[in-house]
Design a protein that fits this description.
mainly alpha, 52% helix, 2% strand, globular
Length: 194
């Protein structure tokens, strides 16, 4: 897998790293990321999916309700969040690759996290997300418009389609330790060695 720790969004190296990657590389990275999450949840069961971990740093400024603002996320919640984020980046990247100028706005659809209660639902969501991400890369023309860029508020460099796609994977990578921590806490609560 790409060393995501080496990518510091906003310091200028995202564009350099993106310029070295092809659509095929993005397919491989997507498969690796989904496989990594699936590997992390291999030994999980339905109780692990809805387990509410201790998370004193929990804060979600985009929470749907004020009750959810400081609520720790369950494993199911994290999985629907990271898959929606990666799919959104993939959809926006396909637009850039096809020469669509930044039209503004979001391209996000997130499964309601409260509906995810079973480990099979998590696995299904990851499989569906893999399919969506890979399909989005099939929308890229043979010669994508990689000179087509946009500026994202938190960054001080323009990004093209490859960079946009990578942002979703970078975001997902940033949640891997959270997934590990939730699973660890769930297993410890059940008295299982992690």
């Amino acid at each position: 897998m790409l060393d995501f720790d080496d990518i510091n969004v906003g310091n200028g190296n995202l564009g350099r790293i993106a310029s070295e990657l092809s659509a095929k590389d993005l397919m491989d990275l997507s498969n690796e990321m989904v496989d990594t999450v699936l590997e992390l949840i291999t030994d999980c069961d339905d109780d692990d999916v809805v387990f509410v971990p201790e998370d004193p740093k929990a804060y979600d400024p985009a929470a749907a309700t004020s009750d959810e603002l400081y609520m720790p996320w369950t494993l199911g919640h994290v999985i629907v969040h990271v898959t929606a984020s990666s799919e959104e980046s993939a959809a926006l990247a396909a637009e850039l690759a096809r020469g669509v100028m930044d039209r503004g706005g979001r391209s996000r659809s997130e499964v309601p996290w409260t509906s995810i209660k079973l480990i099979d639902q998590c696995r299904q969501r990851l499989a569906e997300s893999r399919r969506i991400r890979l399909a989005s890369l099939e929308m890229w023309p043979d010669e994508p418009y990689l000179e087509n860029t946009k500026i994202i508020k938190r960054m001080n460099e323009p990004i093209n389609a490859t960079g946009q796609f990578l942002l979703g994977l970078i975001h997902e990578y940033g949640h891997l330790n959270q997934i590990r921590d939730i699973i660890s806490q769930a297993k410890l609560k059940k008295g299982k060695v992690v």
